[in-house]
Design brief:
Layout: H1 5-32, H2 35-46, H3 52-62, E1 75-77, E2 87-90, H4 95-103, E3 108-111, H5 130-142, E4 145-148, H6 151-155, H7 160-169, E5 182-188, H8 189-199, E6 206-208, E7 214-221, H9 227-237, E8 241-244, H10 249-261, E9 267-270, H11 273-288, E10 297-299
Parallel strand pairs: 2-3, 2-10, 3-4, 7-8, 8-9
Antiparallel strand pairs: 1-4, 5-7, 6-9
Helix pairs in contact: 4-5, 7-11, 9-10
């Protein structure tokens, strides 16, 4: 079929337009493969704003849990609708931790333990408690929200807080799933204490027992489980040593002292509440980071509150 002059010109223009557009597309594709540009593209594509509630919902979902009806894991200060600029995890949201979070431009603190000095963060006395008022004012000044992450962390599989200290001690291979006892290569009580001091950066530990006794079977209960849990664990497992975060001296300690006098072999090591569970909140950062790319997530240790003299 013969083409008219106009038809020929139109086809020629269409071909040139197709080639030009294709070149632009190929050029853009090549441009986007340049490493720096590709990195910038990923930042743009991954950029997303999260509210405090978005983060909380994501943590519960990723932990494969359902929201608890009765829990201490609630927002202790601030709004669930606040846009998150950065996250800090810690054991206790101390004044020092709040100040450090502000320096990092992080406005969301996820803390394992209470903010306002009671198990449920009861603010009934806030009108007359000067310290609570000062802490609230500091949080308001820096626009920081605090959410407690206690019950959910312990219900994760495995328990995030217990796993943290086991990782620090290198004990993961020595505990069978579903069992309380950890059977480690034998070492003396003194050697075990030195390992804890080194691996958890603890200055001083308290113990009951013979420093030269052999320890291979361990029950590890970081934090504050309470005397009944401590005693039940000893009765059930007869471990060489019970390791706790903290305990009531006139309960667990006196039980172990009397039991040893009556022939029990179980020794006691007291790590301290904060330092025993801090590794779990540090591990939590490693767990959370891949789930929220592009958002700064930092662990700040609240540390041992005591000065040993």
């Amino acid at each position: 079929m013969m083409l008219t002059e106009n038809q020929s010109d139109n086809n020629s223009q269409n071909r040139r337009k197709f080639i030009r557009n294709g070149s632009v597309m190929l050029g853009a594709a090549a441009f986007m493969q340049i490493p720096f540009v590709s990195f910038a593209r990923d930042i743009l594509y991954n950029q997303q704003q999260y509210t405090v509630q978005n983060i909380i919902d994501l943590i519960i979902k990723e932990a494969k849990l359902s929201p608890f009806k009765n829990t201490v894991d609630t927002i202790k200060f601030g709004s669930a609708d606040q846009i998150v600029t950065g996250i800090v995890s810690t054991m206790f949201p101390t004044v020092a931790v709040i100040q450090e979070a502000a320096k990092l431009k992080a406005n969301f603190i996820i803390a394992h333990e209470p903010t306002f000095y009671s198990a449920t963060d009861n603010l009934a006395q806030q009108e007359t408690n000067a310290m609570i008022q000062k802490k609230q004012a500091l949080l308001k000044e820096h626009g920081i929200v605090i959410w407690r992450f206690h019950d959910y962390s312990h219900f994760m599989q495995p328990d995030m807080i217990s796993l943290g200290v086991k990782k620090k001690m290198g004990w993961e291979p020595y505990q069978k799933k579903g069992e309380t006892l950890i059977n480690i290569p034998a070492l003396t009580l003194k050697q075990l204490i030195h390992q804890f001091k080194k691996n958890l950066s603890i200055q001083h530990l308290r113990t009951i027992g013979d420093l030269q006794q052999s320890c291979s079977s361990i029950v590890l209960l970081p934090g504050a489980w309470g005397a009944q849990a401590h005693i039940n664990a000893i009765e059930k497992n007869s471990p060489d040593v019970l390791i706790v975060g903290e305990m009531v001296e006139w309960e667990t300690a006196e039980y172990i002292r009397d039991a040893r006098k009556m022939g029990s072999k179980t020794a006691l090591i007291i790590l301290g509440h904060s330092v025993s569970e801090e590794p779990g909140m540090e591990l939590f950062v490693d767990w959370l980071k891949p789930k929220i790319p592009g958002l700064s997530i930092t662990h700040i240790a609240s540390g041992d509150p005591f000065l040993w003299i």
